[in-house]
Design brief:
Elements: H1 3-32, H2 40-65, H3 71-87, H4 94-124, E1 130-134, H5 135-143, H6 151-162, E2 168-173, E3 179-188, H7 195-207, E4 211-216, H8 225-232, E5 245-248, E6 258-260, H9 266-282
Parallel strand pairs: 3-4, 4-5, 5-6
Antiparallel strand pairs: 1-2, 2-3
Helix pairs in contact: 1-2, 1-3, 2-3, 2-4, 3-4
Length: about 300
C-alpha cells in the first residue's frame, strides 16, 4: 500500500467526518436558537468538536483499512490532512496559519486519541465485565457515588482526577452488581518529552495497589535504551519498572513489560482481565512487581 493511497483514504474520511460533524452541530445550535443565527462564540466550539471527531474517525478507519501499516504512519497522515485544512491558503498568512493549525492539532489530537483508546479498549473487553472510561466518566461515577471502592481509593482517585494525571481508567463490574475502579491508564501519541513526568504518577498508582498501564501510538522513542529502562527497570538509574505494562501500536519494540497491540487489543484484553481478577481477590499483593504474563 502506498503512502499516496493512505493519504487519499484518510484524507477523505477526515474531510467527510469534519463536514458531517459541522453540519450536525450547526443544526443542533440552530434548532435551539431563538434568532436562527449561530453565535460567533459557538463557531470555535463547532470547529474544535468537529476536528476532534474527524481525527478520531480518520485514524480508526485508516487503521482498519491498512492493518499492516504502522499506526504512527496513519497518525502522521491524518496530521498532514489536518494541517492542510487549517493552512490551505497561498498568501503571507500561510506561516501563521500553519502555526495555528499545529496548535489546534495538539489541542484536539490528544483528546481524540484518548477516545480512540476508550472505543477500542471497551470493544476488545466486550463480555468481560470490564470497561474503559475517560477521566470525566469516572468523575461522574464518583460524584454519583456509584463506585464501590473503599473511601481511601475514592479519595486517591479524586486527587488524580483533579491533577489530570491519568487519561483513562479501567472499571470492573462484579456478578453481584458492584463496580470498582482498579486500573489507571495513560494514553499518549508519543511520550519522548513527557516520559519522566508520566512515570512518577504511574509508580505512585502501583504503590497504591492499582493496575497502571500506558498505551502509546508511536514507539520511536523506545529505540533509546534509557526509555526502555524507564518502562522495565533493571538499571542503576531506573531500578524499578515504571508501569505494569506499556502497550505500543507496533511489533518493533516488544521487550519485557513492553507489549505490542493492534486493533484487537489482544494483549491488553488478556492483561486487563487477569489484572481485574487478581485485584478483586489478592489486591494486597498487587504492587509494582506484579505482571499479568506471570499469572
Amino acid at each position: 500500500m502506498t503512502v499516496a493511497e493512505i493519504r487519499s483514504y484518510c484524507g477523505q474520511i477526515y474531510a467527510d467526518t469534519y463536514a458531517d460533524e459541522c453540519r450536525r452541530l450547526e443544526s443542533e445550535i440552530l434548532a435551539a436558537s431563538k434568532t436562527g443565527v449561530i453565535p460567533v462564540s459557538k463557531e470555535g466550539e463547532i470547529e474544535t468538536s468537529a476536528q476532534k471527531e474527524a481525527i478520531k474517525q480518520a485514524t480508526i478507519e485508516g487503521m482498519k483499512r491498512f492493518p499492516d501499516t504502522e499506526a504512527a504512519l496513519i497518525w502522521r497522515t491524518v496530521y498532514e490532512t489536518h494541517i492542510h485544512r487549517k493552512s490551505g491558503i497561498s498568501n503571507s498568512d500561510t506561516i501563521q496559519k500553519v502555526i495555528s493549525a499545529d496548535q489546534s492539532w495538539k489541542k484536539s489530537s490528544g483528546h481524540a486519541f484518548e477516545e480512540i483508546i476508550k472505543i477500542m479498549g471497551t470493544a476488545a473487553l466486550k463480555d468481560s465485565g470490564i470497561e474503559i472510561l475517560l477521566q470525566r466518566d469516572l468523575n461522574t461515577l464518583i460524584k454519583a457515588q456509584e463506585l464501590d471502592n473503599e473511601p481511601r481509593d475514592i479519595s486517591w482517585l479524586r486527587e488524580q482526577i483533579k491533577a489530570s494525571v491519568f487519561d483513562l481508567y479501567a472499571v470492573v463490574h462484579t456478578p453481584d452488581g458492584r463496580q470498582f475502579c482498579y486500573g489507571c491508564i495513560q494514553s499518549k501519541t508519543s511520550v519522548r518529552d513527557r516520559v519522566t513526568r508520566d512515570r512518577e504518577p504511574s509508580m505512585q498508582a502501583m504503590q497504591s495497589f492499582f493496575w497502571s498501564t500506558i498505551i502509546v501510538l508511536d514507539g520511536d522513542f523506545l529505540k533509546l535504551p534509557k526509555f526502555i529502562s524507564m518502562v522495565n527497570g533493571g538499571t542503576a538509574e531506573h531500578v524499578e519498572n515504571g508501569w505494569h505494562g506499556m502497550y505500543v501500536f507496533s511489533e518493533m519494540y516488544t521487550q519485557d513489560r513492553i507489549y505490542s497491540i493492534d486493533l484487537d487489543f489482544k494483549n491488553f484484553r488478556a492483561h486487563a482481565i487477569t489484572a481485574a481478577n487478581y485485584w478483586l481477590t489478592q489486591r494486597q499483593w498487587f504492587n509494582e512487581k506484579w505482571r499479568a504474563d506471570n499469572i
